[in-house]
Amino acid sequence: MNTPNVPMRPNELPQQRLYEVKGMPPQPAYFEVQLLDYEQRHSFDRIPQKPTKKSLYVCQVEWAWSPMNNRIDAYYIHKGRTHWLLWMGHHNDEDWFNWRWEWYPATAMPVKGVSVEQAAGYLLMEQWRREVERHDIDRYHWINEEGQLTVSELQAIANVIWPEEDN
Prior knowledge:
The chain has one domain (about 30-165). The N and C termini lie far apart (about 35 Å). It has two helices and six strands; from the N terminus they run βββββαβα. It is globular, with a radius of gyration of 16 Å. Helix 1 (about 115-135) crosses helix 2 (about 150-160). By secondary structure, the chain is α+β, with helices and mostly antiparallel strands. Strands 1-5-4-3-2-6 form a six-stranded antiparallel sheet, with helices on one face.
C-alpha cells in the first residue's frame, strides 16, 4: 500500500484546473450498500482489516476551512470473496511528531456484477452522502490525488452529493 501524500508546501498543492465532468458509471443491478459506522473491525471474507498492497487507491480530498481547521481524507477499496470494502483514511496530525493515517471500514457492497469503477464510485458516493447527513459537511475544497477515480469522475460524484444550487 502506498501512503497517500499530503501536500505541505504551496508548491506541492495540486493544480486545480478545469475538467470535463463525466457522468457516473451505470448503477449495478443489485445495489445494496452497507454503512459500517467507522467500526474498527469488519467480518468480510478475504479482506484485511487495513488497506494492503493489494488494495486499490481511490483518491484523496481535502477540506480547508481555515489554517487551523481542515480535514484530509483518503480512500482505498478492496475486493473480497463476497464484498467490496471502502476504507476511509483520516490523516491524524494532532501529535506533532507522530502524524499518521488512521483507517476505518466505511462502506461495503456485494461483488456480484459490480466492476471496480462502479464499486469505487458508488461506495464513495454513499460514504459522502452519509457524511453530509451526519456531519453536514460541505463539498471538499480540492482534490489532492486521484487514483481509481479521476478528477472528472470525482466531480461527477460531488455534483450528485452537493448540487450546484447548494454551493
